[in-house]
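Deliverable D4.2, example record:
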Amino acid sequence: DVISNLLIVGIILYGFSSGIVDLSYLAFIAVAGGAYLIYLGTSNLKTKLSISSWPRPVHLLAKGFVLGFINPMDFLSWSGVYSTIHQRPLSFLITAFTYLMIGCGMWNLLLSLSVSWCRPYIKPAFIQGFQLISGLILCGYGIFLAWFGFKMLVQ
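Output generated by the structure prediction step:
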């Protein structure tokens, strides 16, 4: 997530933010993001995951990067941040950007540590239920996002 946010901010700072407001671009991102969420949701529903068989960190990092990078809300939120501070001095931008990335990193670290510390207390039934619910939510949101993107393309 932090790595994809770095890339998004870099794209916005280097002048590609005008393409972000193009409706065909946003529609493409919505359809691609929806398709990826449907893929993640169906893979969640098919996979029987246990605590001992969690994916390797590299796979999780790659999934997080792709999910964060194709998320239109990340582009829009970072564009909003940039639009409020773009006329400030460079030192302010570097400081603000550094603090934002440290905050994102600390949040992800807190989540990772929480899962790691709670791992011995997590029962297999909880993991299966969580996987089922999260898979259904991902599929539902993916269908909605893809439908919204197709609707934007048609108009």
